[in-house]
């Protein structure tokens, strides 16, 4: 089996974090298994995260780091995102990255819609995985919040632009995780990286 082209984005805005460790764990395991990997840390990217306009009639010129991010997405056969859940959603800088780059004409086509009126996705031919950390225990997250952030990432971001199948992994609660728990998560992510999933 030949290796995949995998783009890993650590979506935590801090320089050091569990998400960075998980992204690096995934990338190292994937490389060791023969996959070609590109790894980007959101903390290293300097850009204006504010789309700044109503609708899509206008948009700001993309900074070089945003152009490079798009190139990595285009290059990839599989995209992996690690992110914390903050206040039930994505960190503001990560959301800004998506707002600035996943635009019509590149990520989706508003002039070419499907039978139910949704824009045609333009990033098909790729699969995706989101690895989400949170303090909300998995059972509570499922029963009380119906895994809303996981459904948003999978359905309203990855699937919306054509990345299918898109899978999610939820690791929690991180606030109480001891060394043994983190080692278990690392083994889980290591296996995903080796398999390119």
UniProtKB/TrEMBL annotation:
Keywords of the record: Oxidoreductase
Coiled-coil annotated residue ranges, if any: none
InterPro entries: Flavodoxin_fold, Flavoprotein-like_sf, NAD(P)H_dehydrogenase_qn
Residue ranges constituting the Flavodoxin-like fold domain according to the UniProt record: 4-186
Keyword Transferase part of the UniProt annotation: no
SUPFAM superfamilies: Flavoproteins
Keyword hit for DNA-binding: no
PANTHER family per record: NAD P H OXIDOREDUCTASE-RELATED, NAD(P)H DEHYDROGENASE [QUINONE] 1 ISOFORM 1
Family of the protein in this entry: Belongs to the NAD(P)H dehydrogenase (quinone) family.
Protein's name according to its UniProt entry: NAD(P)H-dependent oxidoreductase
Organism: Roseobacter sinensis
């Amino acid at each position: 089996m030949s290796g995949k082209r995998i783009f890993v984005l650590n979506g935590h805005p801090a320089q050091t974090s569990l998400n960075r460790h998980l992204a690096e764990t995934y990338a190292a395991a994937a490389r060791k298994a023969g996959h070609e990997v590109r790894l980007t840390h959101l903390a290293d990217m300097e850009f204006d995260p504010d789309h700044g306009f109503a609708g899509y009639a206008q948009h700001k010129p993309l900074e070089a780091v945003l152009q490079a991010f798009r190139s990595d997405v285009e290059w990839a056969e599989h995209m992996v995102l690690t992110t914390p859940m903050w206040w039930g959603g994505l960190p503001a800088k990560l959301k800004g990255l998506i707002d600035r780059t996943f635009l019509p004409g590149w990520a989706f086509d508003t002039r070419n819609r499907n039978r139910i009126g949704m824009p045609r996705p333009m990033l098909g031919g790729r699969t995706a995985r989101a690895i989400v950390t949170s303090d909300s225990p998995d059972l509570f997250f499922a029963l009380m919040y119906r895994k809303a952030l996981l459904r948003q990432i999978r359905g309203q971001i990855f699937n919306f632009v054509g990345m299918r199948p898109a899978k999610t992994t939820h690791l929690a609660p991180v606030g109480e995780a001891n060394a043994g728990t983190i080692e278990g998560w690392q083994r889980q992510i290591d296996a995903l990286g080796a398999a390119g999933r």
